[in-house]
Design brief:
The chain is of the alpha/beta class and about 230 residues long. It has one domain: Response regulator (Rossmann fold, 3-Layer(aba) Sandwich), CATH 3.40.50. The protein contains seven helices and seven strands, in the order αααβαβαββββαβα. It has a four-stranded parallel beta sheet. A three-stranded antiparallel beta sheet has the order 3-4-5, covered by helices on one side. Helix 3 crosses helix 7, helix 4 packs across helix 7 and helix 5 crosses helix 7. The radius of gyration is 16 Å and the shape is globular.
Length: about 230
């Protein structure tokens, strides 16, 4: 309980400092209070990423790059990119996040809608088959650009980055990721299983919340390992 209370205070102060929007700040605080939903087996999957992030930052790296990979760069990889960046901003961790796929399609509008409901400001700036979205988390935070692309395509980094595979298919297709410092498999169930059903919105919101909760936990553990 003492550890939980300390994290609440740290995250609350950091979010305010990072100038996240009040809605995102509240959302992250709510997810932090759900850390007990992450069981021991899942923490064992998540913790190596936190250890690697802390190790690189401890070595004096000015910022760490993390690329999240799923098959189509449509849903889970974008959610992961944005929630990991929001968590890093809230805890003042120098991190740049990216996303890509084993192939490109388009950022799914259902994922966009779910992220908007959570508190991200998302503006679509092109109207082609693979739209570009600019995502704001609040004043003073860097705007994120989202569109579907292969993981190795610009503007994603091609060396000295951590690759996080967020779907089992991408994990199988990319047993190695050229240029990556390290590779981690942290899969999530695809919310598209509910597309076209009455539970569509709730399924996307549940997956978004899980991704936010787990990568906020990773960011919190990273900061703990750094002793900050």
């Amino acid at each position: 309980m003492k550890y939980l209370t300390t994290l609440v205070l740290v995250i609350s102060a950091s979010v305010t400092h990072a100038d996240l929007s009040p809605k995102l700040e509240r959302y992250l605080l709510d997810r932090q209070m759900e850390f007990d939903q992450i069981d021991a087996a899942r923490r064992a999957v998540l913790e190596p990423l936190a250890e690697a992030l802390a190790g690189q930052l401890r070595d004096g790296t000015s910022t760490v790059d993390v690329t999240f990979v799923c098959t189509h760069n449509s849903r889970r990889s974008h959610m992961s990119q944005l929630w990991m960046k929001a968590a890093a901003e809230s805890l003042q961790l120098p991190m740049t996040t990216w996303s890509g796929g084993t192939e490109s399609t388009a950022m799914n509008p259902r994922a966009v809608a779910s992220l908007r409901r959570a508190g991200f400001e998302i503006n679509q700036t092109t109207s082609n088959s693979n739209p570009i979205y600019h995502v704001s988390m609040g004043k003073g935070t860097p705007t994120q650009t989202c569109f579907s692309k292969p993981w190795s395509s610009a503007p994603n980094p091609t060396k000295d980055f951590f690759a996080v595979m967020v779907c089992n298919d991408a994990d199988k297709k990319c047993p190695t990721v050229p240029g990556a410092t390290d590779r981690f498999a942290i899969p999530f169930v695809d919310p598209k299983v509910s597309d076209g059903t009455e539970s569509e919105s709730s399924t996307y919101d549940e997956r978004s919340a899980q991704i936010a909760r787990e990568f906020l936990w990773v960011a919190s553990k990273t900061k703990e390992f750094l002793g900050r």
